[in-house]
Amino acid sequence: MHADRARAESFGGVAAAYDRYRPGYPEALIDDLVALHPAAVLDIGCGTGKAARQLQARGLSIFGVEIDAAMAAVARSHGLDVDVAGFEEWDAAGRRFDLVVCGQAWHWIDPARGPAKAAAVLRPGGNVVLFWNHENDLEPAVRNVLDEVYREHAPVLLEIAARDRTWKAATSYLADLQASQVFGSIETKDYTFERTYTAEEWVGTVQTHSDHLQLDPARRAVLGDALRDAIEQRLGGAIRTSGGTYSIWARP
């Protein structure tokens, strides 16, 4: 996905909505990251600082790199230090980190360059941890209602969802790290969660996804209204999901 720059760099126009609606990460994951006792943490593709703020709240020192200036501005408004740059081109200026994290963004990083760059900014004994939320476990009846809406108003998104479902397991990124031969130790961990979204929260969240952002704004607005109506009128006003956060832990 990293080569699809239109999608990769589409989030700035919805930075405030991204910050409001996108979920954070399970506390169990944050616990495990804090347990590494890193003195300095780099957050690659930090966005508005969803993961960084959870770590900062636990007393860790965080520095972010974010390609989109609008997203970085929101992160800075929350008190985070952020450089605006693509990670592959970013100048670390001699800085080194005990922990490098990347939440929901590694799929936008060039797999031929990213692993070596991440390892290069680590101090000895440091860790790289990549993680993704995935929330595809909807009840069939709920999925059917939502699919009806997409079929009528944005059928292309049904096709994109079918293609993207495979990367949500992130197995291809695990393979990329293994193939890079940069890391001597690589393991994966899963963290499960359940969430309930109101109609407004569900629509607000999905409309910050890169596939939705590729729609014409007028069509995206119509789709949002139709989803909101379907959830309110046919699904009792809320959607319950179960899913998890898939993570890859790597050490040179």
Quick structural overview:
The protein is an alpha/beta fold and 252 residues long. It has 12 helices and 7 strands. Strand 1, helix 4 (50-56) and strand 2 form a beta-alpha-beta unit.
- How far apart the termini lie comes to 25 Å
**Strand order of the biggest β-sheet:** 3-2-1-4-5-7-6
Specify Rg, calculated over alpha carbons. Answer: 18 Å
Structural class: alpha/beta
Which range does the strand content fall in? Answer: 25-35%
Work out the helix count.
Answer: 12
Shape designation: globular
Provide the low-confidence segments as ranges: none
What is the helix/strand order?
A: HHHEHEHEEHEHHHEHHHE
The major β-sheet equals: 7 strands, mixed
Helix fraction, binned, reads 40-55%
Number of strands: 7
Output mean pLDDT: 90
